[in-house]
Amino acid sequence: MRATFQSLAVLPFLAFAGCNRGSTGAGGASTSGSGSDGTIAQVSASQSAPASVPEQQTADRGTIPPTQTPAVTLPSFADLANRLEPAVVNIQVVIKADPNVPSPYEGTPWEYFFRRPGMPPPAIQAAGSGVVISPDGFILTNNHVVENARSVKVTTNTGEEFPAKVRGRDPLTDLAVVKVVPQKELAAATLGDSDAARVGDWVIAIGNPFGLEGTVTAGIISAKGRVIAGPYDDFLQTDAAINPGNSGGPLFGLRGEVVGINTAIIAQAQGVGFAIPINLAKELLPQLKEEGRITRGWLGVAVRPTSPQMVPANAGAKGALVVAVDPDGPAGKAGVKPGDILVAIQGRPIDDSNRLPRLVANLKPGSTAELKIVRDGQLQTVTVTVEKMPDPQRIVARRR
Is 23 one of the catalytic residues? Predict the structure, then answer.
């Protein structure tokens, strides 16, 4: 069955179903296992004692023996969630509707009431989440939450509402920054180090799924480096429950630092969600704040994974096989050909073909880069002048 990746913004019939200010849960719930009546009655002397339990047998050779005590003690997330919730916000948007999309009432008796001829299409409302990243009102969220927004409103966990402006967007990584002007400093989250996060680490997601404000869920990092759709994908996978409305909300580690921005789920699955690693967001934040968009380096090649036998032992990396070259692109001008294997760029090894677009994107347009390639089994070095990545529409037109 083909997996469907679903973004997590909530459309109107979902977004406001649970958005009343009084819908927050009670804060006095006790943690599980804290009851006071859990004592075990002793066996009286007149009762016969049970037969002694035989000693645990030694594990068979080659098997992993069990530990005498639990290897992991499950934590309570109550204090951590209480401390972090003020940095998580609800983002409500009014989207610019496409006038070419037909009305669902077209051709019915209701068309006159809901969309008369010549009237503009009705506005579409949606909602998502965000995380405050600076006390002066910068908020990190997903691009698909605020894309085509006509207006944006941010609501804090205390119910304060602020009009917001989209400061910058990047569709290729699905990141966006919005800005509010608060009267006093906002509680801001600390951005952590997603590279240091390990598979199996505990994480908590805080957001507004289906408009249910301040929802906290917990899980672990299930995998790293997931590629699900685009050339810059490097997702953290988590089994912490995330749902429509969680988009743009933070994924926290147990130190209270943001390790990811929740972005997508597989619609047919349970416990399979994806978050943008926060280190990727930290690289892009300065440009998003100052320029409103991301300028990336470009080589003009298409690549795919290579088999190990195609790369000599002294190459130092698995490499990426070049399958197509734009003749007008930087790599084409430098002499790179289909069939070449790129094994390093600027001294950084290419261990995965999915890593190459991210490495090239970080190069400054106009700079020169040294490419280490394998051609006919021999290592060669090629120098290219990096260019600015064209708009996707221009790339498609050029290929035609």
Answer: no
Residue 281 and residue 261 in contact, taking contact as beta carbons nearer than 8 Å = yes
Asked if residues 173 and 284 have their Cβ atoms less than 8 Å apart, the reply is yes
**How sure is the predictor about 26, in pLDDT bands with cuts at 50, 70 and 90?**
very low
Rounded-to-integer distance, Cα 2 and Cα 9, Å: 22
98 is catalytic: no
Q: Which domains does the chain have, with CATH numbers?
A: 1-19+75-294 (2.40.10.120), 297-399 (2.30.42.10)
**Spatial CA neighbour of 277 closest among 194, 372, 180:** 194
Which whole number is the average pLDDT over 235-249?
95
Q: Which residue has the tokens 């912490």?
A: 240
Per-residue pLDDT at 228? 86
Q: Indicate the pLDDT class of residue 236, thresholds 50, 70 and 90.
A: very high
Q: Which of 41-45, 142-146, 346-350 has the lowest mean pLDDT?
A: 41-45
DSSP 10: B
Asked if residues 83 and 137 have their Cβ atoms less than 8 Å apart, the reply is: no
Report the alpha-carbon distance of residue 236 to residue 199 in Å, rounded: 9
- pTM for the full predicted model: 0.73
> Which residues are bridge partners to 337 per DSSP?
none
CA distances (Å), 42 to each of 34, 47, 207, in order?
21, 10, 47
pLDDT of 216 > 60? The answer is: yes
Q: Which of 144, 233, 326, 340 is catalytic?
A: 144
pLDDT at 34: 37
DSSP state of 277: E
Burial 7-44 (b: 16+ CB within 10 A, else e): bbbbebebbeebbeeeeeeeeeeeeeeeeeeeeeeeee
Residue 174 appears among annotated catalytic residues: yes
In the set 129, 222, 247, 353, the catalytic residue is: 247
